[in-house]
Design a protein that fits this description.
Radius of gyration: 21 Å
Shape: globular
Strand order of the largest sheet: 2-8-7-6-5-3-4
Number of helices: 14
Structural class: alpha/beta
Oligomer: single chain
Distance between the termini: 41 Å
Helix content: 40-55%
Length: 375
């Protein structure tokens, strides 16, 4: 029977407690949200939603084509210019998602004969970029510049190291200065995915590379998403103008993908301008994360200290993690649930995302519910 193996895979997932299901949400929800990536609380901000609506009224519902045909509007160019200026780089290129931005950066910058050194804790989009690239990939120990240095030292020819700046599972930060030093010793490039750093880390939320003094460096390329701190959708690659020009001509997820919808570009631009005007939102997201961690550990829970806005709480097993998240939901709290294969170490977790707009009472309520429903 065609696709008969699917039933076998479904049964294996069921036995392992790894079945995933869609749960469509209503426009309005009574749940306290600690599951989304809306770090700055901008997804529903009036200025952001009006930016999306205005763009749709002006440019239409879709971009109508790939960026190289009809999918580039003046709005896209405006967003790219302001992103580059905000993050302190020469140029930016907007994609339809952060995932496609990562695929573009890795595949286009790792040609045949090159070496990619990839952190063991990298996001799936970076891993998939490594798989699609024509270069050879070597996985390095998590957050270990010496492991990157050793891998680069055994290769002759073009090379690039790729890493998240803030890892999405535990919220720990990569040692960016050490990674840059290791790459520079061997003339290698460095590609950094700042999906969880933009809007939270750096001066006014300018990102982890900016905080590390790497913004604008000619050997560093940064990818970002517009769907987390900026409350919209889409992604971008930031870096030297010659690299961005190369991506326009060589990145398949740019050349062959329909451009980002104008509404999403308009929302991101409005959010970016709001963040410029209200930089304290970035610091507040970090404060909320640290307060969550302090209260959770005080309650006897095993929580990982956050370096940005992600707070991870360990669960005993995949099945108990699912039950724990469901019990939290029943008690009015929405939290993330990370299980294998989404976690590289096989340890299941509740994943909480701090938001700059959470009140002290909401933080207290979240900690109480998590503690009362623990397995």
């Amino acid at each position: 029977m065609a696709f008969g193996w699917i039933d076998e895979q479904a049964e294996l997932r069921r036995r392992a407690g790894l079945v995933r299901t869609l749960r469509p949400r209503a426009a309005e929800s009574p749940l306290l949200d600690l599951a989304s990536n809306d770090y700055l609380g901008l997804a529903r901000h009036p200025e952001v939603t009006e930016g999306a609506a205005r763009a749709a009224r002006t440019w239409g519902g879709g971009s109508t084509g790939s960026r190289l045909v009809t999918g580039s509007t003046e709005l896209h160019a405006e967003l790219e210019g302001e992103l580059a200026d905000f993050c302190g780089v020469e140029a930016a290129l907007v994609f339809s998602s952060g995932y496609t931005a990562n695929l573009a950066a890795v595949t286009a910058l790792a040609p045949h004969g090159s070496l990619i050194v990839s952190d063991a804790g990298n996001h799936a989009s970076l891993i998939d970029g490594c798989r699609l690239a024509r270069g050879t990939t070597q996985v390095a120990a998590h957050a270990d510049p010496d492991a990157v240095r050793k891998a680069l030292g055994g290769h002759e020819g073009p090379a690039v190291a790729v890493s998240d700046t803030v890892f999405s599972v535990d919220g720990d930060a990569a040692p960016l200065t050490g990674l840059a030093e290791a790459c520079r010793e061997h003339g290698a490039g460095l590609v950094l995915d700042d999906a969880h750093g933009l809007g939270v880390l750096g001066d006014g939320g300018r990102g982890a590379p900016h905080a590390a003094g790497l913004a604008g460096a000619d050997d560093v390329v940064v990818t970002v998403t517009l769907s987390k701190s900026l409350g919209g959708q889409g992604g971008a690659v930031l870096g030297p103008s010659r690299v961005i020009g190369h991506l326009v001509n060589a990145a398949r997820t740019f050349i062959f993908d329909t451009g980002l919808a104008p509404a999403a570009a308009g929302a991101a631009l409005a959010a970016l301008r709001l963040l410029r005007r209200e930089p304290a939102r970035a610091a507040r997201a970090g404060e909320v994360a640290r307060e969550l961690h302090t209260r959770l550990t005080a309650a006897g829970l095993e929580a990982v200290r956050p370096d940005a806005a992600v707070v991870s709480v360990r669960a005993p097993s995949p099945e108990q993690a699912v039950r724990w998240a469901a019990d939290c939901r029943a008690a009015g709290l929405s939290v993330g649930c990370f299980r294998p294969p989404s976690v590289p170490d096989g340890v299941s977790r509740l994943r909480l995302t701090a938001r700059a707009d959470l009140s002290g009472a909401e933080i207290e309520r979240a900690v109480r519910v998590i503690g009362e429903t623990r397995p």
